[in-house]
Amino acid sequence: MQPEKWTNLLHDWHDDLIWWARHGVPRLIVIFLLAFFLIRILGTISRKVVELSKKRSTPTLRLQQVRTLAGVIHSIGVFVIVFIALLQALPVFGVHIEPLLASAGIAGLAVGFGAQAMVKDIINGFFILVENQFEIGDTIKAAGVQGTVEEITMRRTILRDADGTLHTVPNGSIQIVSNMTRDWSQVTLHVAVDYHEISDKVIQVLRDLAHSFYEDATFHEDAVAAPEVPGIERVTGQEVDYLMLVKVRPGKQYAVARELRRRIKSAFEENTIKAGSPAQLYIGQLPPAKS
């Protein structure tokens, strides 16, 4: 009897192996070939997107963002394809995936509750990169801090403020972004002049100064348009504020403002124009009234 049992067992294995070779192996080959071709297509699309960005003379910083985004999409796509292919391949080996899916659903739910903040950061970071809300080198105000963007990832943005402090901002906490260096920036100067100075003279001096500044080759490339002097902005006490507006290239507003203040001081000294001084309030004790 013992030899017959072994014979029957080997016969059953032989039949199972033949059935698996006829039905299981072709299915595995189709699954893996399909997954392989999908991964190759995804990789080709990612490379084409990066190459297309290069051909369109995309700025270097933007090109880095495109590469980052293409890499993230490629990684997520590969993971999804491999995961689905694995689920399709397991039944071929007789593994029932229903319990695995149920366990994965429960584990995913638990992880989802624990990683809500991270998921929110990644989703928000994805849209920041796609919409190009800001780039490396931009000066922005976000999540209550202001600084220059030094690094952008899918999960966080790193800013360095004027004091050198490094701020790490989770992308999920960024609700409103104020980009102060996108396309152009504006220098707004309020020039305080003594109330008794002739307004037409002051305006003409400021306009001549603005014209000479714009024609200066050293600063001409920094200015997007010719500076404007609209006139008097306000009158307070013993001083009059004159407004000067200059549109400059991103990041140049601070150097331009310093140079304009220096030139305004020199022009006022040459034309004997007195700068304004804030009103002074003296508080003292009145002498007693004589009876």
Could you please describe the fold and organization of this structure?
The chain is α+β, with helices and mostly antiparallel strands and 291 residues long. It has helices spanning 2-55, 60-89, 97-114, 116-131, 199-215, 217-220, 253-270; strands at residues 139-142, 145-152, 156-160, 166-170, 177-179, 185-194, 228-236, 239-248. The longest helix has 54 residues, at 2-55.
Features:
single chain, 291 residues, alpha+beta, 5-stranded antiparallel beta sheet, 3-stranded antiparallel beta sheet, elongated
- Given as residue ranges, the uncertain stretches (5+ residues, pLDDT < 50) are none
Query: Cα distance, first to last residue?
Result: 142 Å
Alpha-carbon Rg, integer: 35 Å
Q: Report strand %.
A: 15-25%
Mean pLDDT equals 81
Broad structural category: alpha+beta
- Strand order, sheet with most strands: 4-3-2-1-5
N-to-C SSE string, H for helix and E for strand: HHHHEEEEEEHHEEH
**Count the helices. How many?**
7
